[in-house]
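Protocol step 4 of 6: structure prediction from sequence.
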Amino acid sequence: MQEEVTRGAVTLIVDGAKLSEQVFEKAVKKFLEEIQKSQKPKIYRGRQSLKEEIPYQVPQPDKLPKIHEIQSAGLYPIRERYLKAGERPDYEHEGRRQMLFAASKFDFENPTKRRSIIMKRKLVMLLTIVAVLAVGIGIWYNVPINLMDLEHDEVIEIVVFNGNTGNATHITDETQIEHIIENLNEIKLKRSKPSVGYSGYSFKMTIYLSDGNEADDWNNFIINSDDTIRKDPFFYKVVSEKIDYDYIAGIVN
């Protein structure tokens, strides 16, 4: 809004929410009345600035434009200036915050409440740890694994103990060793159930390397069928390819 006055033009920018025409005019009139009151001589104390104070010419209220003539920027600064402290939203929220803080402090200073809060926190932490462990164990138990990963030319001997007859067969033929090792390298397994308490088996296999030592990792395992292996403390189910059980049985028998 621009209004011609004695000393020139005055620009008034209003910033706030949407208001009705009557509320807007009342707010602006109140604002102008306060400015007119401020024109009275002021008595300053202490150090004074040498800058000359120029009186401000205020436009008359009856010449104010209508609300639709001003861009709707709102009256927030004016409204905030003249609202009582008790009506201001920030004071109200601050009071509520302080009340909640005092209530929580009072509860925590109570020994019984304090013990209850500590116990609840410990219980939540314990349940969280148990849940994480349960998820980890579930993933570990169900993830497929490789039976072995050996080079057949590193194997010098395979000993197969027949649990049905009690006889041991020593396989040293390179062609037979290559066929058995390549077949077992393709096998993928998954844990099926615990093997604790079970006895009896078909073939127990032990693999020896060219340096005379037993192969690391998977060794001394039991083959019960073309899709079942036992290595304590679990039974394993074949999930990829099949064990050439008949080939091993033909050599042993």
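Step 5 (inspection) to follow. The CA atoms of residues 159 and 170 lie 5 Å apart.
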